[in-house]
Design brief:
This protein is mainly α. The protein is built from 18 helices and ten strands. The chain has two domains: 161 residues, no CATH class; 250 residues, Serine Threonine Protein Phosphatase 5, Tetratricopeptide repeat (Alpha Horseshoe). The chain has a two-stranded antiparallel sheet.
């Protein structure tokens, strides 16, 4: 079997897998392995479309935990010192990522599985009888699908410099051409924006069940639309398109009440996990070989009373043994996925949730947007809102330069959203500061600009040098 045929077969397998993933304890649905892709394409009904739509949530979570780990290593947030898997250090810490390894293939196949399944659902929903779906319900499903496709394409683009913007519907056709990161970002924006009029016309409820991590964000023409705009803001920030971000963030679920609580900052959406048979667990909770970057303690600024930044105290502890391996040493561990109530709502341990996007992140995005659109007063109001309430630190005066503001912003983002998705690496990259990680934690270590295009994707296009990124 040629690789191209194998890849198309893998896409079909991913569709079935994503549909089967509804075994998550929050969504009680039939056995999706029995659902026929052919029926979804040729003879769809509301039951099949609902199952496939719920499956998009479950497929989207499959890489979330490991993405937090591997991108976190590039951003010097965490190290995975597994004696049985040295590549977490030999590839990720050194920046020499093998395109044929687990790291080189990370966050590629599963997100494209979401896009492939989304393309099928978008066509299937219009074939469903009006006796089963109202026009509003069809619009709601389409708006949901475009949002999920936009998010997963954004993830591929932010991690990899090149990739297709769509997935072939014909399994025998040549693979889609590689596009640049900018082209992938443009297509992700188109997906997000295509969802807006559909969600506005989508009524007040989706016809399928959402996981608990989306609680409070299940109204198509309300809260889910705000979630869509929050993700669109993240896309703007990744590209430093601040004029667009200024519009989109104000249409999101951002909120800054006078007396915020932890729940205020944790307001948002989450990938949810479970421990049941066939379910997906959160591997970030196991963590005996996983250590936090030691400088998180020494760099944490002090509260007026002398305690360290509250965000550090909430997320990190030193209860574990010191590990020294591969010339890396730390006794710090992240606790927000191990300990109930340490940071996020929901279960602890391997069933703990991982954020998709939270209000705390949005407030700091708005601070950045305001600064770079000529509103330093508003920018510092947002930055200090997070700093004083979430970090319990003293407020900062307005910085005297863009560079000084960026330094202040990166500190707040480091502690506010650390170990939630590899955002420190992305932040340093978009400000052209990755050289700060050179020769750290060991001489010769660097942080790469991107994860490589997987070797098999290059092979399918003719081998090395056959396509951009190959």
């Amino acid at each position: 079997m040629t690789y191209i045929t194998q890849r198309r077969a893998a896409v079909v397998a991913m569709l079935a897998s994503a549909m089967a993933a509804g075994a998550c304890k929050d969504i009680e649905v039939p056995d999706y392995n029995r659902a026929s892709i052919a029926d979804l394409v040729n003879n769809p009904n509301a039951t099949l479309v609902n199952q496939a739509s719920s499956g998009l949530y479950q497929n989207a979570r499959r890489d979330a935990a490991n993405r937090t780990r591997v991108a976190g290593i590039l951003g010097r947030e965490v190290y995975y010192l597994d004696p049985n898997e040295p590549r977490y250090a030999s590839e990720l810490v050194t920046g020499s990522i093998d395109p044929s390894s687990f790291a080189g293939n990370h966050d590629y196949n599963n997100p494209y599985g979401t896009i492939a399944q989304g393309q099928i659902i978008l066509k299937a929903v219009d074939k469903v009888s009006s006796n089963e779906y109202s026009d509003a319900q069809k619009n709601a499903i389409k708006g949901f699908v475009y949002t999920m496709m936009g998010n997963d394409l954004m993830i591929i683009a932010e991690l990899h410099q090149y990739g297709p913007t769509t997935v072939n519907e014909d399994p025998l056709a040549p693979p889609e051409p590689m596009k640049t990161q900018a082209e992938m970002y443009t297509q992700a924006a188109a997906y997000f924006d295509a969802a807006v009029p559909l969600l506005k016309a989508g009524g007040t409820a989706f016809p399928f069940q959402s996981p608990s991590g989306m609680a409070g964000f299940t109204t198509p023409n309300g809260s889910f639309l705000q979630f869509n705009r929050a993700l669109r803001t993240r896309l703007d920030i990744l590209q430093r398109q601040y004029a667009a971000a200024k519009i989109h963030v104000d249409s999101s679920f951002i909120t800054t009440p006078a007396s915020p609580s932890k729940a205020t900052f944790n307001l948002g959406t989450y990938y949810t996990f479970g421990t049941g048979a066939g379910d997906t667990s959160n591997g970030l909770a196991a963590g005996t070989q996983e250590v936090a970057e030691p400088s998180l303690r020494t760099d944490a600024q002090l509260q007026p009373g002398g305690a360290r930044d509250q965000r550090f105290l909430d997320k990190v502890d030193s209860t574990g043994s010191t590990i020294t391996r591969y010339s890396i040493t730390s006794n710090l561990r992240y606790k927000m996925y191990r300990t109930s109530g340490a940071q996020f709502a929901g279960s602890s341990g391997t069933a703990s949730p991982v954020p998709i996007i939270r209000n705390e992140d949005l407030i700091l995005m708005r601070a950045e947007t305001r600064w770079f659109t000529g509103d330093p007063v508003g920018a510092m109001a947002d930055l200090n809102y997070v700093r004083t309430n979430s970090g319990k630190l003293a407020a900062l005066a307005t910085p005297g330069s863009d560079a000084a503001f960026i330094t202040a912003l990166l500190y707040e983002r480091r502690y506010s959203i650390m170990y939630e998705g590899g955002y420190r690496w992305l932040d340093y990259r978009r400000f052209n500061l990755l050289s700060a990680f050179n020769n750290y934690p060991r001489a010769g270590d660097v942080s790469p600009q991107f994860f490589p295009v997987p070797f098999t994707e290059c092979l399918a296009r003719g081998g090395a040098g056959s396509a951009p990124g190959c």
